[in-house]
Amino acid sequence: MILSGCSKQTATEESYADEKMNVNIQAVDAAASAPVHSTVTSAPPQLAYDYDYGFSSGTKGVDALINADQSACAKAGQAACQMISMRADNNPGSGFVRKTLELRVTPEWMKIWQGQLSANLKNSNAHIFSQNVTSEDLSLQIVDTDAHLKNKLALRDRLLNIIKNNPGKIGDLVEAETQLSQVQSDIDSAQSTLAVLQKRVATTHLTLTYQSEAAAASHNTFSPVTDAFRNILNNMMIMLGIIISAAAFLIPLLIVIVPLIWLFVKWFRKRKASKIGKA
Asked: Where is the DUF4349 domain (predicted)?
């Protein structure tokens, strides 16, 4: 009888532990599916700035200006200036050069660069032909992502507490660990997104376009004449190509048609001669 009573009590405790773990997991599920509510405070807006400059100069001036900006960026280091991309479009025939440098810089580096811009333009004999500044308010995205991250961190702590302090069935443990893995993945994704947004606010996206003036200067009153002389050899080769192509089509036809014409003429003369002889 005593053994029977102990056995019933142990089974009751295991059943209670299983029910308790199931309740905890259901509570975690409810917390995971609950919407994230974020409150935008009166903090200053989180703005991401994009600066776009266009410079015009001679070919040598373009090279000097872009080299100066690249050197300044490299000298400042990755913490202050990062080069995202560099593109170049050159047209040797017209002497036209267009290069684009894309940077992500700190506000401090931006101020130093702007302070030295006038001197660099003067040294390169260049001028600004376009200048644009745009901004994007990332406040709501940052607040929402931060609130979502805090919710997931709290959810992860509850799941860890369930796994450590509420032993139950193996199936329930597997379910809790599966949820923990998914929550940790969501946390990593939210942390990465938040880091990118904060970096966009903390730094400035800078696009610099360098363009030569050779293309504009090359078009004058005598441009049609100079272009015609420059294209003489090209036009001659085009005509020669047309003649060769036409010959390639005509030669096979001539090989067949000429003998037929010759045979027809020979037959016609022979027939005409026979008619005259009879007459």
From this structure: 66-264
